[in-house]
C-alpha cells in the first residue's frame, strides 16, 4: 500500500487542529548535538559487553573542575538555571519572526513547514523545561524550568488567538463558506479550550482527594489501616491488596462515595467537550478524538469492545468462579464476590498456583545483563547498536544518568537516549519516555536527530551487587526501550508526527511488542545470566513466569473493557440519556459482571477520563496489534533480520506520518479483520500445555 505523504496528511488537518498542534506539549530540544566522536565506556567486567558493563558499574563522581560546562543536553545556555530565561527569550524571538513569516507567506506547502518550525521552536524549550521541572535534582533548576513552562504557555495562548496567524492557515482551506465563519468561531473554540483546561484540572485534582468519615462509622479493629485526623478517618485509596475483606469493603464504599461537586464537574466537563466537538463539526467528542486513529470512529471502537467482551465472557466467568471459591475457602461466612475482591483474590490465586518469587529471578536480571540483551536484540533484529558515551560536563542532571548513542550499521548515528534509570528522592515514581527533541528534516536537507530520555526508578547498585531487576522491572525496561526505538528510528519529515507522536491507539504497539520479546526464552537466554556465577536462567523459570501472568487474566481484561466502554459512552451521543452513575451501573453489569454497589460512583476516580478522553480503549487495541505482529511475524523466529527490517521500514519509520492501519496491514501483509484483533487478545490467555506438564512432572 502506498504511503500517504506527511504533507498531505497535515494539509487535511483543519485550522483548529493545527492550533492544537502548537498547544500540545511536545518535548523537543534545540541545539544540534550530533557528530561527536563515539567513545566507549571503560570495561569494568570481562563478562559483559561494554554496554552491559557500563550499566552494571557504580556511577563515578566526576571531578572535572576545569572542563567547560556544556549545559543540559549540550544546550550551552542551560549550564545554569538563569539559562532558561535566555533560551525562552530566544525561542520567543524566533517565534515572532516565524509568525511574521507565516502571515506574509501565500498559501501553499510552505505554510505547513513554517508551522512545524514554529511548533518545534516553542516545544523544544517548553518541553525540555517540562522534563527538567519534574526530574532535575536541583530545586533552582526546577523553579527556573517551571517559570519557562508558564511563560511559553502564555505565549502559546496568545498565538492561539492571533487572528492574522489564523488567517494565514485559513487560506489553506478552499471552502469559502467555512472561512467566512471562522474568526468568531475560532475565538469561541479558544474560550472553550480554556474553560476545558480548568475543568480538566478540577476533575483531575478531585479524583485523588481522600474521602473522610466519622471514626465511629468504622469498626475499631480496622482503624489502623487508615490515616486519622482528629475524630475522622481519611480514606485515600481502595486498599485493594489488603487481606482483610472488611478493610477493602470499607475503603471501596467510602472512597467511592459520590461527591456532588465532582458529579457536577464531570457533567460540565462532558458538556464542554461535546460543545467543542460540535463547534468544529463533529457529531460527538468521541468522533473528534478518534479522527486519525487506527480505530477511526466510535462505532469501530464499540464493535471491537463488544466482540471482545463476548469472546471473553466464558473465561471471565470461570475466573470469577475461581475467585469466589477462594473467597469462600478463606472466609466461609461471606461468599458473594464483590468488586473490591477482584485484585486481591486474583493475586491469591496466582500466588497459590505459581508462587513466583521475584528475588529468585533478579540475580539473573542485572541491569547490565538486560541492557546487553536489548543491545543484542536490536543489533540482530534491526541492525542498530547501543554505545555508551561519556556525557560532557553539565550535560546531564544527575551523575548516574547514562547517555546512549544509537548507531545504525549503515547510516551511522541515528539519535541519543539519556537513561535516567535510578531512584532519587523528588523524582516522579513513574516509568516514562520523554521526547526531548523530535526528529525532522531540516531546511538544509540534513536530519535533526531525535533525543529522548527514559526515566525509571530502579534501585541503585550496591558495593556487592549491580542493580538487580525483578521480572516486572525487566519487562518495563523492555517496554520503555520499545518507545525509545520508535523515536530513534522514526524518519518523518515533520517533528510533530515523529516517533511516539502518533495516534494514541498505535503508540503502545512498539512498546508492548517488546514485552513479547522479553518473555520469549530464545531472547531471554541470550542475556539472563546470574551476575555472580554466570549461570543462565533456566527455561522452566521463564515459562512459569509467562504462565503465571495468565491466571485470572480474562477477568482483568474484562475490567479494562468495562472502563473503555464507559469512556466511550460518556464521550458519545450527547446529551447522555441517564446520569453518569446510572450509566456506570448499567455498563458494569453488562461489560464486567461483578455487581454495582449502591451509593458508589467509581467514575469520579477515573482520572484517565482527562488525558485519554474517548481513547481509553487504546491500550487494548495496541496490545491486539502487538500480539498479531508477534504471532504472525516474530514468533517463529524472534531474531529474524528480514522481518526485523520490515518492521522498521513499515512501522517504526513512520511515527504518525502514515495512516496507522496501513502500517499494520503492510507489516502483517494482509488486512486483519475485527475477529483477528479480538482473537489475538483472547488467544494470549491460552495456557501453554508444555509448561503445564513440565510443572506437574
Ligand atoms: Zn508505554
UniProtKB/TrEMBL annotation:
SUPFAM superfamilies: Metalloproteases ('zincins'), catalytic domain
GO molecular function term, any single one: metalloendopeptidase activity
Subunit structure, as described in the record: Monomer.
Protein name as catalogued: Mitochondrial intermediate peptidase
GO biological process: one example: protein processing involved in protein targeting to mitochondrion
Assigned keywords, A-Z: Acetylation, Calcium, Cobalt, Hydrolase, Iron, Magnesium, Manganese, Metal-binding, Metalloprotease, Mitochondrion, Protease, Transit peptide, Zinc
Highest rank taxon of the organism: Eukaryota
Functional summary from the UniProt entry: Cleaves proteins, imported into the mitochondrion, to their mature size.
EC number: 3.4.24.59
Amino acid at each position: 500500500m502506498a504511503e500517504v505523504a506527511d504533507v498531505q496528511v497535515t494539509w487535511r488537518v483543519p485550522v483548529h487542529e493545527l492550533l492544537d498542534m502548537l498547544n500540545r506539549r511536545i518535548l523537543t530540544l534545540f541545539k544540534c548535538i550530533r557528530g561527536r566522536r563515539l567513545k566507549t565506556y571503560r570495561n569494568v567486567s570481562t563478562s559483559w559487553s561494554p554496554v552491559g558493563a557500563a550499566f552494571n558499574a557504580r556511577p563515578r563522581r566526576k571531578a572535572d573542575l576545569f572542563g567547560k560546562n556544556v549545559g543540559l543536553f549540550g544546550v550551552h545556555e542551560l549550564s545554569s538555571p538563569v539559562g532558561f530565561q535566555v533560551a525562552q527569550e530566544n525561542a520567543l524571538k524566533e517565534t515572532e519572526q516565524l509568525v511574521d513569516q507565516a502571515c506574509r507567506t501565500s498559501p501553499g506547502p510552505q505554510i505547513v513547514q513554517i508551522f512545524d518550525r514554529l511548533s518545534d521552536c516553542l516545544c523544544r524549550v517548553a518541553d525540555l523545561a517540562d522534563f527538567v521541572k519534574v526530574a532535575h535534582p536541583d530545586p533552582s533548576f526546577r523553579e527556573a524550568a517551571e517559570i519557562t513552562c508558564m511563560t511559553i504557555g502564555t505565549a502559546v495562548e496568545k498565538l492561539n488567538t492571533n487572528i492574522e496567524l489564523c488567517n494565514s492557515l485559513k487560506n489553506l482551506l478552499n471552502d469559502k463558506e467555512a472561512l467566512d465563519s471562522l474568526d468568531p468561531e475560532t475565538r469561541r473554540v479558544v474560550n472553550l479550550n480554556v474553560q476545558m483546561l480548568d475543568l480538566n484540572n478540577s476533575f483531575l485534582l478531585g479524583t485523588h482527594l481522600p474521602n473522610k468519615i466519622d471514626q465511629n462509622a468504622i469498626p475499631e479493629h480496622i482503624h489502623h489501616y487508615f490515616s486519622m485526623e482528629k475524630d475522622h478517618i481519611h480514606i485515600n485509596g481502595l486498599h485493594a491488596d489488603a487481606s482483610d475483606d472488611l478493610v477493602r469493603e470499607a475503603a471501596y464504599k467510602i472512597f467511592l462515595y459520590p461527591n456532588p461537586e465532582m458529579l457536577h464537574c464531570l457533567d460540565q466537563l462532558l458538556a464542554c467537550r461535546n460543545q467543542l466537538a460540535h463547534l468544529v463539526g463533529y457529531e460527538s467528542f468521541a468522533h473528534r478524538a478518534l479522527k486519525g486513529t487506527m480505530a477511526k470512529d466510535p462505532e469501530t471502537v464499540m464493535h471491537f469492545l463488544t466482540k471482545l467482551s463476548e469472546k471473553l465472557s466464558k473465561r471471565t466467568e470461570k475466573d470469577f468462579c475461581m475467585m469466589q471459591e477462594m473467597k469462600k475457602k478463606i472466609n466461609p461466612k461471606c461468599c458473594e464476590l464483590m468488586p473490591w475482591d477482584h485484585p486481591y483474590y486474583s493475586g491469591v490465586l496466582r500466588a497459590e498456583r505459581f508462587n513466583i518469587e521475584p528475588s529468585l529471578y533478579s540475580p539473573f536480571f542485572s541491569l547490565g545483563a538486560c541492557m546487553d540483551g536489548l543491545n543484542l536484540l536490536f543489533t540482530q533484529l534491526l541492525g542498530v547498536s547501543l554505545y555508551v558515551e561519556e556525557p560532557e560536563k553539565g550535560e546531564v542532571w544527575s551523575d548516574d544518568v547514562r547517555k546512549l548513542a544509537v548507531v545504525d550499521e549503515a547510516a551511522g548515528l541515528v539519535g541519543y537516549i539519556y537513561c535516567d534509570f535510578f531512584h532519587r528522592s523528588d523524582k516522579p515514581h513513574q516509568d516514562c519516555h520523554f521526547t526531548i527533541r523530535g526528529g525532522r528534516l531540516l531546511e538544509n536537507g540534513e536530519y535533526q536527530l531525535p533525543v529522548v530520555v527514559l526515566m525509571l526508578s530502579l534501585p541503585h547498585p550496591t558495593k556487592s551487587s549491580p542493580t538487580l531487576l525483578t521480572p516486572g522491572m525487566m519487562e518495563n525496561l523492555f517496554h520503555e526501550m520499545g518507545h525509545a526505538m520508535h523515536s530513534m528510528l522514526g524518519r518523518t519529515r515533520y517533528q510533530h508526527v515523529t516517533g511516539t507522536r502518533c495516534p494514541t491507539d498505535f503508540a503502545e504497539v512498539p512498546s508492548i511488542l517488546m514485552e513479547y520479546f522479553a518473555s520469549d526464552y530464545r531472547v531471554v537466554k541470550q542475556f539472563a545470566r546470574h551476575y555472580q556465577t554466570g549461570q543462565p536462567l533456566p527455561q522452566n523459570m521463564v515459562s512459569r513466569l509467562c504462565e503465571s501472568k495468565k491466571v485470572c487474566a480474562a477477568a482483568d481484561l474484562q475490567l479494562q473493557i468495562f472502563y473503555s466502554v464507559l469512556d466511550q459512552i460518556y464521550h458519545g451521543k450527547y446529551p447522555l440519556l441517564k446520569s453518569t452513575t446510572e450509566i456506570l451501573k448499567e455498563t458494569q453489569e453488562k461489560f464486567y459482571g461483578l455487581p454495582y454497589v449502591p451509593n458508589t460512583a467509581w467514575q469520579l476516580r477515573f482520572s484517565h477520563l482527562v488525558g485519554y478522553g474517548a481513547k481509553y480503549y487504546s491500550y487494548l487495541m495496541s496490545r491486539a496489534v502487538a500480539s498479531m505482529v508477534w504471532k504472525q511475524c516474530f514468533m517463529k523466529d524472534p531474531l529474524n533480520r528480514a522481518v526485523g527490517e520490515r518492521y522498521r521500514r513499515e512501522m517504526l519509520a513512520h511515527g504518525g506520518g502514515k495512516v496507522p492501519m496501513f502500517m499494520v496491514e503492510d507489516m502483517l501483509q494482509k488486512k486483519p479483520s475485527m475477529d483477528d484483533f479480538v482473537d489475538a487478545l483472547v488467544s494470549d490467555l491460552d495456557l501453554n500445555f508444555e509448561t503445564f506438564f513440565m510443572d506437574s512432572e
